[in-house]
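User: Second chain of the day. Same drill as before.
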Amino acid sequence: MYYRNAYDYDTLRRLLLDPHRSAGTSVVLCAIDPLTQQDHSSTVTAIEPNSVLIVDGVFAFRPEIDEYWDLRIWLEVPVELSMRRGTERDRHRTRSITDPAHQRYLVSENIYVREVDPSALADLIFDNSVFTSPRLMRS
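Assistant: Same format as last time:
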């Protein structure tokens, strides 16, 4: 199942999150490229003291990594709109909203919302229904 197996959280912690906690070191920004399956884990990026790491991604508040965040932002978007945006974004790879790639995400997102309740963990919630005009709902 996509939700349970989509990400390697051990590698994320080892190559990015834990090293970032040590100022003046380096991090790996991409281990295995999901599109090409190429391993980039030997490509390191130096980080400066007092640098800020911004992580954007699905399932970001999962218990495996939630402790790393100082600020959690949740973007609230109706499911139908999110699916339309995903279809448009991935139009070169998928054909329609019924494509299995979209369906696995929808099922997984439902599990994530039910099990983790990310909006309850969020420090800030934005209504992102109008992409060019996000509206702060809760701070």
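The chain has five helices and five strands.

User: Great, on to the next one.
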